[in-house]
């Protein structure tokens, strides 16, 4: 559940458990071990954990030997309390205990008793387990480059459940990416809670722009993305990297959260709306085709109509390519939970819909502007709607569906855009004699 960090961490869990003879299955009813890797960033995500756990009660009654583990941010936050609501759980392991999962499972197998590990002691770097590799057939992969956050935005649980910023050694990151390329990965997304702060604390002698240059030199890798960026750490050098590193896709996710300076102060974001707008102008100056997406929270405590209007104004001024919208909800132990002037739910709902409507028009307009252009689409797999259809992404991160029985997963193919929708584009491949169709190397055969 949750963010890309959890996707990555779940893969590390699979590798950690492989020596104990656990293998992934698509049949939970046949599983010997079920691990929920949880997210607590929003109230809704946390509810999902308990609702899923509720559905596992009967399974545990029918098969008492089934081991149920709950890991990740909810586990770190709840600890022993989790057993009160879900007594059928065997292991509660927090974000710091990820690397100890295999020994916790072994202990439950041997001792048949419940275990909690939320000890905030962790390895010096985010966990990466090299072997064994499970090939996914995907063309893209996430690579964690750092973990944790030092920013303490007033609404966010991350610094409490994931700890302070820790960056991985660049050598290990590059080795991991080279290994992924050997396993047919064409695109990597470098992930972390605030990738812009990569290397600032650890003394690896390599900051984020430098890391991007090294990754850009990895042979066989076709595309690089990164997320998430904090606006206050978006340096001019990093902005210029969009020109210097050819493989870096022209897309940035730059959460603004609010267009009101008063709200930004209350959120402890460390920048003003003017600062943010200047960063956007610099990005577009360096890379005019760059796509910019953002996160916005509506209904933050104390948000008045005038603050919301400032957010609407910022959204109109920037013209985001896409926007992830959230209604504020209190999270345990964060400063904003104690703020007065909570915004009523009905007001949050109304602001959410207003903003969504405005953004949908922008997104559609931006998508329509791509009709009749040719885009380099990295093929990700079969399309979901029609047979013989493939799906992939443009450099600026738009989904394109197109008919083709010959293109291969992981290849970049030129596609002419013929129609635009709110959330995707429809295209026609062009130039079948394009070198990307030669099929002489790389790629995974796609049986269309
Ligand atoms: S920058 Fe703020 S919102 Fe993002 S992870 Fe850190 S504390 Fe949370």
Overall description:
- This protein has 448 residues and is α/β, with parallel strands linked by helices.
- The protein is built from 14 helices and 17 strands.
- It has three domains: 4-117, Rossmann fold (3-Layer(aba) Sandwich); 140-368, Alpha-Beta Horseshoe (pyruvate-formate lyase- activating enzyme); 374-437, Beta Barrel (OB fold (Dihydrolipoamide Acetyltransferase, E2P)), CATH 2.40.50.
- Mean pLDDT is 91; it is low at 433-448.
- The strands form five sheets. The protein has a five-stranded mixed barrel with strand order 13-14-15-17-16. Strands 1-2-3-4 form a four-stranded parallel sheet, with helices on both faces. A three-stranded parallel sheet has the order 5-8-9.
- The protein is globular, with a radius of gyration of 23 Å.
Which properties best describe this structure?
single chain, 448 residues, alpha/beta, pyruvate-formate lyase- activating enzyme, 3 domains, 17 strands, disordered C terminus
Short overview:
The protein has 448 residues and is of the alpha/beta class.
Termini gap? 30 Å
Biggest sheet: strand arrangement: 13-14-15-17-16
Low-confidence runs of at least 5 consecutive residues: 433-448
Q: At CATH's second level, what is the architecture of the largest domain?
A: Alpha-Beta Horseshoe
The top-level CATH class of the largest domain is Alpha Beta
Secondary structure: number of strands: 17
- Structural class by helix and strand composition: alpha/beta
CA-atom Rg in angstroms: 23 Å
Small ligands present: iron/sulfur cluster
Please report which band the strand proportion falls in: under 5%, 5-15%, 15-25%, 25-35%, 35-45% or over 45%: 15-25%
CATH topology label of the largest domain:
pyruvate-formate lyase- activating enzyme
């Amino acid at each position: 559940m949750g963010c890309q960090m959890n996707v990555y961490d779940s893969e590390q869990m699979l590798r950690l458990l492989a020596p104990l003879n656990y293998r992934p299955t698509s049949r939970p009813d046949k599983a010997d071990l079920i691990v929920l890797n949880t997210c607590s960033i929003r109230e809704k995500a946390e509810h999902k954990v308990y609702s899923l756990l509720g559905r596992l009660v009967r399974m545990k009654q029918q098969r008492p030997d089934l081991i149920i583990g709950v890991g990740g941010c909810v586990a770190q936050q709840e600890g022993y309390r989790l057993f009160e609501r879900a007594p059928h759980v065997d292991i509660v392991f927090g974000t710091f205990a990820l690397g100890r999962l295999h020994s916790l499972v072994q202990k439950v197998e041997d001792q048949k008793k419940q275990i909690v590990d939320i000890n905030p002691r962790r390895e010096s770097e985010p966990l990466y387990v090299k072997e064994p590799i499970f090939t996914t057939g995907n063309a893209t992969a996430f690579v964690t480059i750092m973990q944790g956050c030092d920013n303490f935005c007033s609404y966010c649980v991350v610094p409490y459940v994931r700890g302070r910023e820790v960056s991985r050694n660049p050598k290990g990151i590059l080795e991991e990416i080279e290994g992924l390329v050997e396993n047919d990965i064409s695109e990597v997304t470098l992930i972390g809670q605030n990738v812009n702060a990569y290397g600032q604390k650890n003394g690896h002698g390599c900051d984020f722009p430098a890391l991007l240059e090294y990754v850009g030199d990895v042979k066989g890798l076709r595309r690089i993305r990164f997320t998430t960026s904090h606006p206050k750490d978006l340096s001019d050098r990093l902005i210029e990297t969009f020109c210097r590193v050819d493989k870096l896709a022209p897309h940035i996710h730059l959460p603004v959260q609010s267009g009101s300076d008063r709200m930004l102060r209350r959120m402890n974001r460390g920048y003003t709306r003017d600062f943010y707008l200047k960063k956007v102008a610099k990005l577009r100056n360096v890379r005019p085709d760059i796509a910019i997406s953002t996160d916005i929270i509506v209904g933050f405590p104390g948000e008045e109509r005038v603050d919301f209007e400032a957010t609407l104004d910022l959204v109109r001024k920037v013209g985001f390519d896409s926007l992830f919208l959230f209604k504020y909800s209190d999270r345990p132990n964060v400063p904003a939970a104690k703020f007065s002037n909570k915004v009523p739910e009905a007001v949050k709902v109304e602001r959410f819909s207003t903003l969504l409507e405005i953004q949908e028009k922008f997104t559609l307009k931006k998508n329509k502007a791509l009709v009749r252009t040719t885009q380099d689409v990295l093929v990700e797999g079969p399309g979901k709607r029609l047979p013989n259809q493939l799906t992939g992404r443009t450099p600026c991160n738009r989904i394109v569906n197109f008919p083709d029985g010959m293109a291969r997963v992981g290849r970049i193919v030129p596609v002419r855009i013929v129609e635009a929708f709110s959330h995707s584009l429809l295209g026609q491949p062009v130039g079948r004699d394009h070198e990307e169709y030669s099929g002489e190397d790389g790629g995974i055969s796609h049986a269309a």
